[in-house]
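Students often ask why we bother encoding 3D structure as a string. The short answer is that it lets us treat folding as translation between two languages. Here is a chain of 497 residues written in the first language.
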Amino acid sequence: MLAKAGDVYCVYNNYLKKYTACQITKIEEDDQKPRAVILSLDWSREEPLKEAELSSLQPLYKDFMYWNRGIHLSNVNVNVPANYTFAGNVTPLTDESTNSYATWGDGYEVYRQLKWQEIPKEQRDTFKEADKSKEKVIFAGKECLISKHHLNDDWTPFEDALELKVFPCLSKLTLKKWHENVYEYLQSTPFITELVLENHNKTKLDFSKTSTHRLSLDMTGVEELILNDDLEELILLGEITKDCKIKAYESGANLLLQPDKTIPKLQGLKDLGKLHFMNISELDIEEILTEYPKLRELRLWGKPGSLLHFDRVSEFKELEVLTTMDLFGFTAEDIPRPDSLPNLHRFWMNSLPEDAAKVAKKLYKKRKEEGLDLWITKPRKPEWLAQNLDNPFRSWDGQENITPANAKKAAALYRKTRAGMVKLVESSPDEMMQGATELVKLYTEGFNKMDKGKYFIETVEREDIYTALDDILDLIPAEFNIDKENLLNFFDELKDF
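And here it is in the second language, the structure alphabet:
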């Protein structure tokens, strides 16, 4: 179904356990594909929106956290997703345009705004005042702006967490060790939405009375973990204790779990709703199915990597979102049939075996016409895999802003630089330093030449180039005592992109 100006839709939000609503305010036409401008509405109910309610609808005014009060508009695809329900058509509530682009969501902005409004007004006002203030306060013996948003105890050392109360609009906290009164501080503020905690040396952790939305946690030695009901994302760091007990709201039904290295065997997350797994070398879908059979969202990224038993995906009967990137090891026969995943409304596969890509497109063609968000791109031939398994620039192949020639040049430059570094390992420390410096120079100048006059190297590409070089420099044995940071700084000085 194609969206039309004035159309009103509703979609279920699992956090609220209610339906939320939106309106298509206009269809924008330009040289690219047409796009719909979507407006979030100030409405939520336990039942879908009825036509009789259309005349009373109002825009959602968003001002949670650092947002200035205003309506929430985004440009989205004109194809309406299958999980959206049409409620009717009324005169658009605004004719504004926007530079913001997004996918069709699930009313998350409504949820965040409502959670914000639950916070006492006095606290919200203090947050907003601090965010705009140029005032300075004393923290850990030093002068700091009161408007600080993010604090890392590596950069700004302190002892007692209650000292953090001088920053009324602090929202992200990175702790590389345990601090006195951590719990007391976290329980005193509703604004720490993201917490990173490492090297805490605790066997039991209890965040039940905090307001964190995103928690990155060193699990080394942790035997019991109690999460707050509002937690949306749990990122597991360190070594996970087998059968670690986790207490989560509704057994993790609304939780996004992002493990590292392996699929963790955890107690208490039998109803886990979302799983993201990155940097996959090899992953068995059977393991995921055994531990987390009720997933609604499964997103997997390879480096590249292989998936075993991909055919078992069809057994995730509640699956709504399935995406893979740079993953192989499966065939056309393993692609799940549409009737096995009745709730699927987003299906993305990027960089996959060519035969599987063809079958996926064919099988889900009808579902796409019915509203499935289908995106199957970069089918790979076996020979591509043979050439690119060790290529950090493999994602450049097929990008609109990068020519095939430059994608090949980048891969060749990486391999040449890496091979040169491997040869230097057998040299003396002086020869290593001289040779490594020359390799960094040639590597950087190679990309300078590629980008000259074309300017295709932007933020993502720049990070790819840096990461690839960083990996090459990791080949230098520690006994050479060569400062890798100096070589990376040399790269920064030489680059013109």
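Translate back mentally: The longest strand covers residues 297-308. Keep this in mind for the problem set.
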